[in-house]
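Open question from group meeting: does this chain pack into something compact, or does most of it stay loose? Before anyone orders reagents, we agreed to write out a predicted structure and look at it together. Recording both the input and the output here so the notebook holds the full record.
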Amino acid sequence: MIKESAIVVDVDDDRIVVEAAIKTTCSSCQAQSDCGSGVISRAMSPKSQRLVLHSPVPCRVGDTVTIGVPEAGIISASVWLYVAPLILFLVSAIVLDRGLPLVGLYSELWPVVGSILLTMLGFVAISRYLKQQDNTKFQPVLLTANSQLK
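Structure tokens returned:
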């Protein structure tokens, strides 16, 4: 389970809205002042993210909570979003490169265009597939709540 601290910013019955600061590895790097990637990362990345969670325990605005996302969900999402389209692109490029000359299309442009189109269709198919699946393994969950007494 990957854990992160967040602050409750809104409460609505058993649903809470939490805000978590997005951390980058650039902030801990020794070369951050001399690195172009660090400058771009600090300038372009959002500073916080808001999430809506189900809360089995009562929370109040200002409480510090620990949220977690299962590693299996992150790995599964990474495979579906990065590895599957890459494999689809490579396989379609090889198949089209070998198959299109058999029908008289000898230009290298055809396998490239065909691979891009098939990969885009693959993204659409993957998106539809993931929307039909049980997405609870991708959802962050509330692990602990530390109430701030006022």
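Observations to bring back to the group:
The beta strands are 2-12, 15-21, 48-54, 64-69, 141-146.
Residues 49 and 149 are 25 Å apart (CA to CA).
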